[in-house]
Amino acid sequence: MKQNVELHIEELLLHGFGNVNRHRVREALKCELTRLFTEKDVPSLLSRSGDFGRLDGGTFNIPSGSKPEAIGAQVAQSIYTGFTE
Predict the structure, then answer these.
(1) Is residue 79, in this structure, part of any structural domain at all?
(2) Distance from the first to the final alpha carbon of the chain
(3) What CA–CA distance (Å, rounded) separates 42 from 76?
(4) What confidence score (pLDDT) does residue 64 get?
(5) Which of the listed residues 13, 24, 31, 37 has the most CB atoms within 10 Å of its CB?
(6) Distance CA 49, CA 5 (A)
(7) Residue 2 belongs to some domain of the structure
């Protein structure tokens, strides 16, 4: 059974990305999270609890010069993984 998920990200802090186009990062993040929640199950942590004060998406490495779309997709995957741990 598919569940409806509404995710509101109040603030997203990305350190060490310099002058990156945040609007393109945001759009890629949104698209990738939509894909992950559509193609995979809703993580049990998210389906049990409705509110998170803070979620640590962990750390990851992005090659220098990466496009905003690649950054947004990686951030989305880290957020999704944060719900599963």
Answers:
(1) yes
(2) 22
(3) 14
(4) 81
(5) 37
(6) 12
(7) no
